[in-house]
Amino acid sequence: VLSVIPYKTVDEAVKLANASIYGLAGAVWSTDVPRALSVARRIKAGTVWVNDYHVLVPSGPYGGYRQSGLGKELGVAGCLEFVQSKQVWIDQGRTLKSHIWAPVLGLDRIFGITYE
Predict the structure, then answer these.
(1) 43-69 confidence digits (pLDDT tens)
(2) Residues 6+ apart with CB under 8 A from 97
(3) Closest CA to 77 of 55, 95, 62
(4) Which residue(s) pair with 27 in the sheet?
(5) Cα–Cα distance, 29 to 49 (Å, whole number)
(6) Domain residue spans of the chain
(7) Would you say 43 and 14 are in contact if contact means Cβ atoms under 8 Å apart?
(8) Contact status, residue 18 vs residue 44, Cβ threshold 8 Å
């Protein structure tokens, strides 16, 4: 489906493009590529093409914004859709045996950590 809607200014065109509840993909066509890139950055969609359409690469994330799609697939962003990260911290006192990064970051001085 292609919508062709007249507009008077670029700001109005971006506002119209972003007014949809969907945001899977969009395209900007222009002979002024830097200006088209500026417009593309303002469009709220998962993929925005400049002077082209339907080009996808497996290493790039694919998925939409708002009510388009169920997240991302492909690329690192797609893999991260299947990951839940968590940190677990245990306070074991102020004596640490092998925290290589603590002295580098100065955490030993900040927190008064001593080493065995």
Answers:
(1) 999 889 999 887 777 777 777 777 787
(2) 115, 116
(3) 62
(4) 49
(5) 8
(6) 10-80, 88-116
(7) yes
(8) yes
The size of the chain, in residues, is 116
Q: CB burial class (10 A; 0-12, 13-18, 19+) of residue 39?
A: buried
Q: Taking a C-beta distance cutoff of 8 angstroms, is the pair 61, 80 a contact?
A: no
Q: Which amino acid is at 83?
A: V
The dotted CATH code for 10-80 is 3.40.309.10
Model pLDDT for residues 69-100, shown as the tens digit of each residue: 766 767 777 777 777 666 666 555 655 555 55
Whether the predicted pLDDT of 113 surpasses 90: no
